[in-house]
Amino acid sequence: MAEQEASGLQVLLHTLQSSSDRESILAILRLLGDLLSVGTDRRIRYMISKGGSEALLQTLVDTARTASPDYVILLPLFRLLAKVGLRDKKFGQKALELEALDVTLILARKNLCHSQNLLHCLWALRVFASSVTTGAMLGINGAMELLLKVITPYTQQRTQVIRAAAEVLAALLKSKSNSRRAVNRSYVPGLLRLHQDWHSHDTANSFVPIRRALLLCLKHIAKLRSGREAFLAAQGMEILFSTIQNCLDDQSLEPIISTGLQILRQCYPKSPLPLVTSSSAYSFPVPGIVTSETPRVLTEEDYEDDGEEEEDKDSDSEDVKEEDDDLETDVNKLSSKPGLDRPEEELMQYKAMCLELSCSFEELESKPGDDLNSDETEYANHHHIPTAASPKGLCLNKDQISGGQEKEVPVQTSLLSRVKMERSSVHVTSERGPGMNSYQNVHSNGPGIGSSGSDVSDIQASFREDAWDMDAISCPRISASFSNSTKTRETAEFIDQLLQTHPKPMVFHDPYLYMAKARRTTSVADFSMMAFPDFWGHCPPLSAQPMLQRKCGVQRIKILEDVRRLIQPSDIINKVVFSLDEPWPLQDTASDCLQFFSAFESGNLRKAIQVREFEYDLLVNADVNSTQHQQWFYFKVSGMRAAVPYRFNIINCEKPNSQFNYGMQLTLYSVKEALLGRPTWVRTGYDICYYKNHYHQRTAVTGAASGKCYYTLTFAVTFPHAEDACYLAYHYPYTYSALLTHLDILEKSVNHKQVYFRQEVLCQTLGGNSCPLVTITAMPESNSADHLEQFRQRPYQVITARVHPGESNASWVMKGTLEFLVSSDPVARLLRENFIFKIIPMLNPDGVINGNHRCSLRGEDLNRQWLSPSAHLQPTIYHAKGLLHYLGSIGRSPMVFCDFHGHSQKKNVFLYGCSIKETLWQAEATVGTSNLSEDVSYRTLPKILDKLAPAFTMSSCSFLVEKSRASTARVVVWREMGVSRSYTMESSYCGCNQGPYQGLQFGTGELEEMGAMFCLGLLVLELKSGSCSHQLLTRAAALLNAEEESLDVYLQRGSSNSSIASELDDEPPCLEEIEYGTGTDSSLDQEGSFSELDRQIQECAFHKDEGDEEEEGTGKGRKAIP
Ligand SMILES: [Zn+2]
């Protein structure tokens, strides 16, 4: 703004305040009105900065205090006040200080019968009330009584005034002291009556803003416990429920529906979860004092103090601030390397885990002419790399294991041909899943019907004739040879029979081996059954499944159904049909209800309650020795009818939001489908949403400082067959026994002349299971000194996964990594020849086995124990860290350390790394970073993966070091072992919103592919490093040239300075607002009515102006990285 204009404005304001001349005041007001009615908000904000608010308020007070106030001055003045006040965050405070509240209230009282004057007073009150403190003051001075007088009784005269008054009242009720006053003076029944009057008379929906303002009044009052009680006593639930039912189909009533629903949710009486205790149904005597972290406080039931200037807070900027507060800004902590956390001599025990460094390979007598490389045959192809052709997978059924007839050479498709650049040809449609090909084709002409094969009808027959109910297929862990029970023996025979009649070539799976592994797996509850899918195996579906399109209004319909339980309880059954806590048998097979079961590895259903005929409330078990972390679920359901939509509600979820609101579906495995030749976990479910419910655990129960609230995941499933046994899970299960099975098969599958594959035990877990450690590299060419030297000098790469048991996606990524590394892919061969991989595929076996979501058997998050793990309390972490320390002590710290995880809030796959500079920069720390030296090599691998891997995106990566993450693997390995490329790799539970898989949910195939792509990334990283050997470069170049230009291109591209995409929003806006908070106000309310108030004032103003657009600050979110 020009200097002249600025000084001109100041002169005007000064004159306005000092002048007592009516004409000059009017002239100035007109001039200001003109000035502010054109241009943007910036002009108004400038005026505010120059004391504009004070000048106008002072003029108001001076004018109003005269014996007969001059409304010719007052009306334009009020309009200016409202316009300026809307943009001045301190306006309420200023009005209070200049005593403008009282004069305005007095003017309003005097003008109760003069609509135009009253309307102007109300506008001013509206902006005064935007500050909660000022609003409270207005309440004390009787403003609410005045407003109630204006809006009661119901009348359709003076609707403009009624609307303004109702809106002021709603604003005042944001103050809790005002709400309390309203409850004490019994405003609630009156407001409800007004609501009903307007609702029944306004059939043309002409007065939606008035109706909404009345609901907002109730909504604010309902934030108080006493307000909710008054609302319930006045039949508020019934009244609003029927209003909303009437409005549902009318789009123009959206503001009423959403506000009404918020009130219903707020007022739904809180109740404890239908559980005897929130502690896990399983407890395990663990060593040491269990220091389970205190439950996260999600909300406060009721804090009745007056919030101060609540709406001055911008919730977005608050969040960012909190996050930044968590950043580590202590340069010493960031850059100093702590000492060893254990006696140095203890490290020697890990020498035995690095036999590759001492083995002399005497069996490898170097015989001239015996070219090891000529033997190209390997058993295992990396089957998860999508290929158009369908190589026959490794088939290891009982009678085939020894036969070795699987030597046929699989079709070779190098990983290189599958990289991200080939966006057009990615397998979105039909190139999925070699491994299921041999029978998939047979059944491709329709689900289980018709010509396809005698085995289908055979199986169906066997169900009928032998009366094998599906429960028999629950697969006892103990086979006949271990038990005398006839039933068990029969079952085992039946399984044998099934496997013989349905020999399915399942890649890297073998039911008998699985059974053997499961038998030796130790669980807290001593599981005696296996889940059929884990036993029988899973083949990825033929094509990736798209994300579920969320239907508009699905959440409100579910919530209304929940409310209906309360007010129309007649059809509610409320029968417990499954429970880990009740001693008596609950499974009543005679009745028509579903049967549930989850006493198998990774299963964790705790209770099922039939609510309506086809609706069940489910509760999942807390982590062992914990009262929390319910999110993961895995259970069996049987006894279903065909073509009936069943609704399931998991009512004790804990996370505040979920990808289930953004297109994610759960997974289902049907036993009948499996026996028909489709043994596949598929994404399933519709009408899915995730929202805060009315369950609440009180302080006394949680032992925390405050109670906590719960969330419902609701979904509908129509099962594929009647009387089937189906398994439902949060994500594709991957059990500990599956891992052991898989590792054994992998070990058997590799060509041991070429691949050095060693499986050993890192340590025993608290639960008595062994934690596997895998070493993979290439065998030395011979045992000559040179070859052994090359072999032993290969740099290490360390990869871990599944420290969080609920993150089964991490195991599928790991499966892809392992299978790729031992495969005959030329890239895998190069990797083996140049690196030694140390892999701990499951850092938390006990958690996985016992169906935990987050913790170990001690109820603690193992990924918060890396700073000072104990050998007795966190053995897997202690020894994983010990192994890394050992490698460091012999100068062999890994080039890359990566811990695979799953992410429940974001899409895609991305890395978290560590950078001092980025952390300090983000925290805007005052410490100079210019003299800190930090190489930026930590960014190279994610950049490479961004170019290679279809699911990966750089834009979600972060390299900040948070205080709250100081004890995670990523930060500890970075800081204590000095590994600059230390990462957490997060894979979405859902899928991708970018790249070739955009709009698709992950299948196991995509996750496994990511694991393979990660390995390719490691190779490219090496090629780009200065230390890369000439020989490797030459060989890689030959390989890459053969693979068209693909890799060359990233190598070139990678070296240039690629621009970093600014951080994407986590989520696109959802179709309906997901409002969880009962205590926080949607800022939309406010802004909506503000610009609306603006509009009303403009309409009334002398000068109609156009184009006065809002220019709200849009620079939210994190700054782009420089
Ligand atoms: Zn995790």
UniProtKB/TrEMBL annotation:
Its cofactor is Zn(2+). The gene is AGBL1. Belongs to the peptidase M14 family. Residues 300-329, 1063-1075 have a biased composition (Acidic residues). One of its GO terms (molecular function) is zinc ion binding. Residues 732-1022 form the Peptidase M14 domain. Its main location: cytoplasm. It is an enzyme of class 3 (hydrolase). This is tubulin-glutamate carboxypeptidase. InterPro entries: ARM-like, ARM-type_fold, CBPC1/4, Cytosolic_carboxypeptidase, Pepdidase_M14_N, Peptidase_M14. GO terms for cellular component: cytosol. Pfam families: Pepdidase_M14_N, Peptidase_M14, TPR_CCP1_N. It comes from Bison bison bison. The active site is at 986 (proton donor/acceptor).
